[in-house]
Write a structure and sequence with these properties.
- With about 230 residues, this protein is of the alpha/beta class.
- The protein is built from seven helices and eight strands, in the order H-E-H-E-H-H-E-E-H-E-E-E-H-E-H.
- The strands form two sheets. The chain has a four-stranded mixed beta sheet, with no helix packed on it. Strands 5-8-6-7 form a four-stranded parallel beta sheet, with helices on one face.
- The chain is globular, with a radius of gyration of 18 Å.
Length: about 230
């Protein structure tokens, strides 16, 4: 999997043979550690300058939508950071795919490296089950704006902000052409921008569930406060 997808947005949850070798803070007290090799040139330059692994949470407070550009990251973290690097807006827009490689390969969190792409390399993926606790981003309510979120909405109610998908003129259209990668790259930025208008709710158009749509729908279900 590393050979096929690294560097890139794939996190592997792996067993730690010697728990004293990896800080408890990096393991969240577990006997596993999640490892990723980022593709972004700025992240790779930072790692090269540091000369070792870096423990790095995302730049959002727990439960909030992930920031995918510098301005949103600074709005989220404020004066709590000592330094900030601006690498431009995120190209992918969603957090990494997380796969546990323990008793058998399990998909803990879908992402832009899709289930189909992974299974083409290593065969069928099991569901999260008992390994779910080893991955971030699995709260029933997560990635959530302040406004309530409604899913699979063909047309918004009065007072609602609408995240459209497909042809049409809308202030927040995830992809007028129905491109799932474009929708993923815009998702969190549009959720945050729509939320700033203090709507009665944020309504979201139906998103196809195949390919990258599985990851988009996972984030939307958690933003709405449930996991179907």
């Amino acid at each position: 999997m590393a050979k096929a997808f690294w560097p890139g947005p794939l996190t592997l949850v792996l067993p730690v043979a010697d728990t004293d070798a990896v800080s408890d803070l990096a393991r969240a007290g577990l006997d596993t550690v999640a490892v990723r090799a980022p593709a972004h040139p700025l992240a790779r330059a930072l790692l090269a300058r540091f000369g070792g692994p870096v423990v790095a949470p995302s730049a959002n407070r727990s439960g909030r939508p992930s920031p995918t550009n510098y301005a949103d990251a600074m709005e989220e973290t404020g004066d709590k950071v000592a330094a900030a690097l601006d690498g431009g807006p995120c190209e992918v827009g969603l957090e990494s795919t997380v796969v546990a490689l323990l008793d058998q390969p399990r998909l803990l969190r879908p992402g832009s490296v899709t289930r189909e792409e992974i299974e083409a390399v290593i065969g069928p993926l099991a569901e999260a089950q008992a390994d779910a606790k080893r991955s971030p981003g699995r709260l029933a309510r997560h990635y959530s704006p302040k406004a309530p979120v409604r899913l699979n909405v063909a047309a918004p109610e009065p007072g609602e902000a609408y995240l459209a998908f497909g042809p049409g003129e809308h202030r927040w259209n995830l992809s007028p052409t129905g491109d799932l990668r474009e929708a993923a790259s815009r998702l969190f930025a549009y959720l945050r921008d729509a939320d700033r208008t203090t709507p009665a709710a944020i309504a979201v158009a139906p998103i196809p569930h195949e390919g990258l749509g599985e990851a988009i729908n996972d984030r939307l279900k958690r933003a709405a406060g449930f996991v179907g």
